[in-house]
Amino acid sequence: MRIDVVTIFPGYFDALELSLMGKARDRGLIDLRVHDLRESANDKHRTVDDTPTGGGAGMVMKPEPWAQALDGILADSVGAEPGESDEPLIIFPSPAGEVFTQAMARELASEAHLVFGCGRYEGIDQRVFDEYGERGRVRLVSIGDYVLNGGEVASIAMIEAIGRLLPGVVGNPDSLVEESHEDGLLEYPSYTKPAEWRGRRVPDVLLSGNHAAINAWRHEQSLERTRRVRPDLLDD
Ligand SMILES: N#Cc1c(-c2ccc3ccn(Cc4ccc(CN5CCOCC5)cc4)c3c2)n[nH]c1N
Question: Are 39 and 72 contacting, i.e. CB atoms less than 8 angstroms apart?
Answer without folding.
Answer: no
